[in-house]
């Protein structure tokens, strides 16, 4: 009896720690949705390699703390870190930032906001296929929280009266530009559906102490990828569009660009990845996938601050639904 009680308490403590880690990661990741609006005169790919060059440089400085753990990583581990860095960092943020700039904030945010549902479904399918019975949840139990979260996302994003002024301010409606923005948003959704499931699989096969070293390892492999992307972009501009070349390397507002890149590099990339790694280790993949809703909630909060307004009635109702959906997810995955 006492052993069962201790196991229950331990499980609840792990779930609480995982929830808090996912909340922290979501609040930090929400920053990346407003940076493309604050730096609208910078191409999305410039924001991506700027952010990840900052992330990589910070990781080099932080690697000394985790030198013992990093030395134990195998060649296969570094290859895995490279794949995760390419897809979950560079491709994801390039396509997300470009989508927001091309199509305006509301619709790409809606598409990215479906990630809690998409990841939960894909993670449950992946765990079922892998035969991990302990992490598989019956679809009938998973359906209610997923439906509530999806309803909240739809209500938030289709509050047209609240978003009309914001979308109009972006000047990005209509035509090929808008369609390209939607296409890039789809690529971003696919990238960040793959990343957390693959990342969680690696982490759950190792000790909890690997959360920070693994975040640093991804930063280390991101640096050469980001530098290569920056060099390729500079070469392309020099050959294809020399008359419209980007003001290399820091653009028209160097201090704002450098400051925001350092902020998202440290906060959103390194610390956010560290917290998400911890959440991924402590929580079932299908549940962790739902908690990316914290990123959407944080992005909405920062957007309201940026636009200088309160949420509309529909947005407030949608936010309540998002929170209720997460609480229902807690009930589904809490220890028996």
Structural write-up:
With 336 residues, the protein is mainly alpha-helical. It has one domain (11-333). Helices cover 82% and strands 0% of the residues. It has 15 helices and no strands. The protein has helices at 2-29, 31-38, 44-62, 67-71, 75-103, 106-113, 115-130, 139-157, 160-170, 175-204, 211-240, 254-282, 285-290, 293-307, 313-333. The radius of gyration is 20 Å and the shape is globular. The model is unreliable at 160-173 (pLDDT under 50).
How would you summarize the topology of this molecule?
Blueprint: H1 2-29, H2 31-38, H3 44-62, H4 67-71, H5 75-103, H6 106-113, H7 115-130, H8 139-157, H9 160-170, H10 175-204, H11 211-240, H12 254-282, H13 285-290, H14 293-307, H15 313-333
Helix pairs in contact: 1-12, 1-14, 2-5, 2-14, 3-5, 3-11, 3-12, 5-6, 5-10, 5-11, 6-8, 6-10, 7-10, 8-15, 10-12, 11-12
């Amino acid at each position: 009896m006492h052993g069962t009680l201790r196991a229950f308490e331990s499980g609840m403590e792990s779930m609480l720690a995982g929830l808090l880690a996912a909340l922290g990661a979501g609040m930090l990741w929400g920053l990346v949705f407003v940076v493309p609006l604050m730096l609208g005169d910078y191409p999305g790919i410039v924001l991506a390699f700027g952010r990840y060059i900052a992330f990589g440089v910070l990781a080099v400085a932080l690697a000394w703390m985790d030198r013992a753990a990093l030395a134990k990583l195998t060649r296969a581990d570094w290859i895995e870190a490279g794949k995760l860095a390419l897809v979950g960092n560079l491709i994801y943020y390039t396509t997300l930032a470009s989508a927001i700039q091309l199509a305006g904030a509301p619709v790409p945010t809606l598409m990215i906001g479906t990630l809690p549902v998409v990841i939960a479904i894909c993670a449950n399918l992946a765990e079922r296929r892998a035969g991990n019975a302990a992490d598989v949840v019956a679809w009938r139990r998973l359906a209610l929280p997923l439906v509530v979260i999806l309803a909240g996302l739809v209500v938030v994003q289709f509050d047209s009266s609240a978003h009309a002024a914001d979308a109009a301010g972006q000047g990005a409606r209509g035509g090929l530009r808008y369609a390209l923005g939607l296409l890039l948003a789809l690529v971003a959704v696919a990238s960040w559906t793959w990343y957390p499931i693959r990342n969680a699989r690696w982490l759950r096969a190792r000790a909890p102490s690997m959360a920070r070293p693994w975040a640093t390892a991804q930063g280390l492999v991101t640096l050469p990828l980001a530098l290569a992307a920056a060099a390729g972009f500079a070469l392309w501009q020099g050959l294809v569009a020399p008359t419209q070349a980007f003001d290399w390397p820091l653009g028209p507002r160097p201090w704002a660009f450098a400051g925001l890149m350092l902020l998202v590099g440290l906060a959103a990339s390194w610390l956010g990845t560290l917290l998400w790694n911890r959440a991924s280790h402590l929580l079932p993949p299908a549940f962790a996938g739902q908690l990316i809703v914290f990123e959407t909630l944080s992005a909405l909060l920062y957007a309201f601050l940026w636009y200088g307004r309160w949420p509309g009635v529909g947005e407030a109702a949608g936010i309540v639904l998002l929170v209720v959906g997460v609480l229902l997810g807690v009930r589904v995955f809490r220890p028996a």
